[in-house]
Structure formats: C-alpha cells, structure tokens
Amino acid sequence: MEILRVFNNNVVLARDELGREVVLTGRGVGYQVRRGEAVDRARVARVFVPAGNPGSVARLLAEIPSEYVELVAELFGDAVRALNATLPPLSIIAVADHVHQALLRLERGEVMEYPMRSEVAHLHPDELRVAESLVERLNARLHVSLPAGEAIALAMHLFHAATGSATMEQTFQQSALIRQIFTLVAEHFGPSFDADSIDAARFATHLRYFFARARNGLQLEGEAPGVGSILRDKYPQSYQLAERIRALLELRLAHPVSEDEVVYITMHVARLQHAMRPC
C-alpha cells in the first residue's frame, strides 16, 4: 500500500493493491512518513474502506483519540453482536465520533437533550436496551458519567449498524440535506431561527428517522388522519414551509413524500416557530 496523505501519527490515507483509497489507523502508522512511501503494515491496526469521501473520513478520524476508536470497536462491536448482527467497520467511526463529542460536552458541563426516548423505546426496544448497557460499560471503562440520554443516540447507531441502513457516504449526504433544509427554515423565519437549539436538534433527529424509513421504502401513512387540515389552519406559515421541505426532499430523494410525513414535518416547524416568538 502507498501513502497518499498523512493526517497525524496515527491516521493516513493510502492506496491499496486494488487501487482503492483507504483510511489506515494504528499507532505510529503516519510517523515520519511521506506521500508516495510504502505503508508499514506492522503499524496498521485498522483498515477502513469508505464508499466515498475517504479524505473526509480520515480527517474525522484524525480528530478522535485513537484509544476511543479502539474502545468503541470493542464495546460497540459487542453491542452489535448482542443484536445478532455483524459490525460494519465504518460504523466504528461514527460511534467513536459520537462518544468523543459526548465526552467533550461532559467536560464543558453541557447536556444534550434527546427527547425521543418514547419513540425509540417503541420502535427499537432491543437496540435501546443494548445501548443502555453500552453506556454503562463506557462509563465504567472511561471512569466518567455519561448522561443516560446518550443511550437514545447510541440506540439509533445500533439500528443503523444492525440493519446496514446507512454508509458513511449516505450519512454525509443526509447531513448536507439537513443543512439545506435548515437553510430553508432560516430564509423563511429570518435571523431568529437558531440552528443549534434543542428544537432544531429534535427536527434533525426526526429527519434522520425519515431517511432511515425512506431507505427501506417505508413512510408514515394513515397515522395522522385529520391532523393535516388542523395544522394548515393553525400554523399556515409552518405548513407552507413544510410543503417546501417536502418538495426539496422529493427532488433530492427522487420519490414522493407522504402527506403524513408532511404533517410531522409541520409539527416540528411549528415548534421551531413557537420557540422564536418573543417572550
């Protein structure tokens, strides 16, 4: 394998024997090496083969302490196997990044709210049960006290890993689409819209649920009879914006978005609108 780019002592981008760009991690794998040199295979701990954006994947990995990557590979791997599934290598990166960010929030005294526990408990009870155990194991190994709510996010990581529902490339595409949607919201409501608010985080989480359903050919149908007309009357601005979001989703995903999905989008937009009202 040939070195293409060194990100730090422990993360490099390389080209393998099949001509693929791969991300390599391992203690000292990037130490005192240059582009074009051969990889010291003895220093390679893990090989990641992204479907796309290998440079972005390597850049993300370079920001995560290597010990977190190895810990997640062990503990998250155990959690995925507890669900009778096989650990997708790239999911290690997403979860290691999540754990890293959670630890940084803990250091800053910040608490991330995950308000969808009831929905996750209903839709993914097995994943949530395993995720709660995973949080306990992480706390024990890292000697910290991650909030119990982190199990909700980790349950969704488990769902994605166990079902193979998202590649890193798809994850990046979803994030870009969420940013486009937030741009629409900001243009509609003006500078009072706070993309970092709890309600915005809830909306982003809902959108990721929608993407997961859409990949499996599923959408909410027949769950909100009559609610659409009520929301149209009570929150006409929010419903109008939800229709614009629907059009964007249909354009980017190349398939129709159900009326019930629009209803739930309207609910989230209305919550955002309500939060922006002056007190």
Explain what the structure shows:
The chain is of the alpha+beta class and 279 residues long. The protein has three domains: 50 residues, Transcription Regulation, Sacy, Chain A, CATH 2.30.24; 98 residues, PRD domain (PTS-regulatory domain, PRD, Orthogonal Bundle); 108 residues, PTS-regulatory domain, PRD (Orthogonal Bundle), CATH 1.10.1790.10. Helices cover 60% and strands 7% of the residues. It has eleven helices and four strands; from the N terminus they run E-E-E-E-H-H-H-H-H-H-H-H-H-H-H. A hairpin with a 2-residue loop joins strand 1 and strand 2. The longest helix has 22 residues. It is globular. The termini are far apart.
Structure class: alpha+beta
Q: What proportion of the residues form beta strands (DSSP E)?
A: 5-15%
Total domains, how many? 3
* CATH homolog superfamily of the largest domain: PRD domain
Give the biggest beta sheet.
4 strands, antiparallel
- Low-pLDDT runs: none
Q: Quick summary of this structure?
A:
By secondary structure, the protein is an alpha+beta fold. It is built from 11 helices and 4 strands. It has 3 domains: 50 residues, Transcription Regulation, Sacy, Chain A, CATH 2.30.24.10; 98 residues, Orthogonal Bundle (PTS-regulatory domain, PRD), CATH 1.10.1790.10; 108 residues, PTS-regulatory domain, PRD (Orthogonal Bundle).
List the keywords:
279 residues, alpha+beta, Transcription Regulation, Sacy, Chain A, PTS-regulatory domain, PRD, 3 domains, four-stranded antiparallel sheet, 11 helices, 4 strands, globular
SSE diagram, text form:
Elements: E1 2-8, E2 11-15, E3 21-25, E4 46-48, H1 54-62, H2 66-82, H3 89-108, H4 117-123, H5 125-142, H6 150-163, H7 168-189, H8 198-215, H9 227-234, H10 236-253, H11 259-275
Antiparallel strand pairs: 1-2, 2-3, 3-4
